[in-house]
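To: structure desk
From: M.T.
Subject: fold request, one chain
Message: Could you run this one when you get a chance? Sequence is below, nothing fancy, just the single chain.
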Amino acid sequence: MKLKQFLLVVLVSGLTTGAVMYGFGKYFRPQTTIQQSGIQQMPSNYVGLFDSNSGTPGQYVDFQLAAQTSTPAVVHITTVMGKGQANNNLLRRSNPFADIFGDDFFREFESPLRQAPQRASGSGVIISEDGYIITNNHVIDEANEIKVTLNNKKSYDAKLIGRDPSSDLALLKIDSKGLPFLLYGNSDNVKIGQWVLAVGYPLNLETTVTAGIVSAKARTLGLNAKKSNTPIESFIQTDAAVNQGNSGGALVNANGELVGIVSAIASPTGAYAGYSYAIPVNITKKIINDLLEYGTVQRAYLGISYLPETAPDTEREKLGFKEGQGIMVLDVAKDGAMANSGIQKGDYISKINGSKVTTGSEMVEQVAGYKPGDKITVNYSRNGKEFSTQVTLKNKSGSYDVVRNSALENFGAEFETLDAKRARDYGVRGGVVVKRIGKGLIDEQTRMRDGFVIYKVDGKEVKSIEDFNAALVKGQKRVMLEGFYPGYDGAYQYPIEME
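Reply: Done. Structure tokens follow.
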């Protein structure tokens, strides 16, 4: 009897336990966690691609249309620099009798060593059906011959229409009609993370298309400062693969619109290392239009100095710089565009014509789209209060005049009309002050120093920059600059070969 009771208790207990486990599993089932190699796995799925044009997730970005549109309008540019010039320097240095007889005695018997012409290549973008082509200034700089080869293998001799070392842009022309060309986009609308294509002729390859995203905007590299006293840099940074030969090629968006001109790469080796840089098309089209209409760029200036974003923290603290306010004004030129605007030292500029600016390069990019005489709205703050003012932009000489193509640009220096008071102190009726000498004919051919005052050109008196410019006759091969250094006796003459 005891055995039967024991078995009955076991049976009831087993049934009760089974019922409890069944009910718990049905109504209180826990979430299970899968583990592999001791790592807890989260719920996951493949990430859908994002269409930057439609904004609809899960759709692929198709670059075929952009590539088909842009490749016929991007050209290969080849240049020849030098004509095999003679070079006797090595022979003269090795002449053991030069000290006795002099170099001139043996010069008649020397055979000149010929220098082989240098060749280079880059890319360009056709912007009109009649053959106008944009490229980089450094692609055609110092070139004696420029050839353009189209995507269909047809080749043409190209004529240089104009160039702008400040922005590293140049305009070429080939004699042809009915050419494919790219339409301008709007670089102000380019966003970080947006897909772009770089199209060009890298490493002497055929037309090559690479894709990447915009990784930054308004980048400054300091490259154009090597060629110009007034550099303009506000690059679009991308991770599209770019190599030597891509210079002057196209940066296009997914719609096939031109948004930039490829200009540089960031690399310790000279080859692509992750980042490439393009000149925004809004800067490009303004400069190209100026070259076509005036023969030179109509450069507009605000007439201020500002705290650069690269300023050390100690300087920022000393000036009391506040983050997030905008661009801090350090000085306002007395004869500049901002002179009567109400803006003062210590103010923060936050917008140019409604476009927000947070760095100096962004401000330069916005102003570069205008010419002297244009009116813009500048927003600024002072002690936390917001203000707005109308400013009429001026040219480099402090006037609103249109600047025509001038030989002065080739001199590579900053000039200023000598003011009347200083002219009287120096005992002259006027002149032109060489404020700062940069890259150009003066630096290459003379030992002139900053501060030199020019009062004669080819024996003719000049009292102002306008007189100086008028004295430089078109097609002139040689010019003689005469002047003095304030504080020193005597006049100095500097001959310059213009061609």
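Reply (cont.): Confidence is low (pLDDT under 50) at residues 28-56, 84-114. Let me know if you need anything else for the meeting.
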